[in-house]
Fold this sequence. Notes:
Alpha/beta knot; four-stranded mixed β-sheet; alpha/beta; seven-stranded parallel β-sheet
Amino acid sequence: MIIIGKNPILETLRSNPKDLTKIIFMKNMKPEPRMKEILGLANANNISIISLHKNDFEKYFQSKDKREGISQGMIGFMKDFEYTPLKELISMTEKVDNPLLIILDEITDPHNFGAIIRSAVCLGANGIIIPRHNSAEVNHTVIKTSSGAVNYIPIAMETNLNNVIKLLKQNAFTVIGTDAQATTTTFDAKLKKAICLIVGSEGSGIRLSLKNNCDELVKIPMSGGFDSLNASVSTAVFLYEIMRQKKS
């Protein structure tokens, strides 16, 4: 798997340098602080560094059909992302006060997935769970969009999300679904407890089978004539309110 861009590569070097095997960058790049830190960390961890002229770099990049981030002039190579087993993820939350997990139900856009990961890390979530099918997986686009935040939160991949919900309830989590048609808003919901927040796809929301298994359904109060937000934006709003209540 490849990583595109300086920030994702730098965050990987800071958190999990052993995951990187090689870094390629364009010659004559400006020696700014991030670049110097990347090269220093790569050398310290015995990671292969290759510099190419612009034309050679672009040909290589295009041959992989990964056009995003060519202007940054740097790509890294790493082993495939390792998902965290669900039971291990749950055990990580046992000593956390009011832990927060997120289930992403068929979020297929890797840019949305990456943005949600970044918000989850910034706003105190303890882990993310995605379905094995009909979902974006952690790839170069997700890593780049998250600005490397994917290195700071465990992510589990499970086949049956209803079984996941059942196990979470057995471990004292309250399962809250995000639903634009809910009667309870984030202003009224009590969110200072162990929560698993379910976020559905932009097209159809949470699947009915999962919605029926939620303990509560909550919506963001909206004004005006437009009643929907991008999935990653709405997730960030929910996470912020959960963090605010937990700190109050």
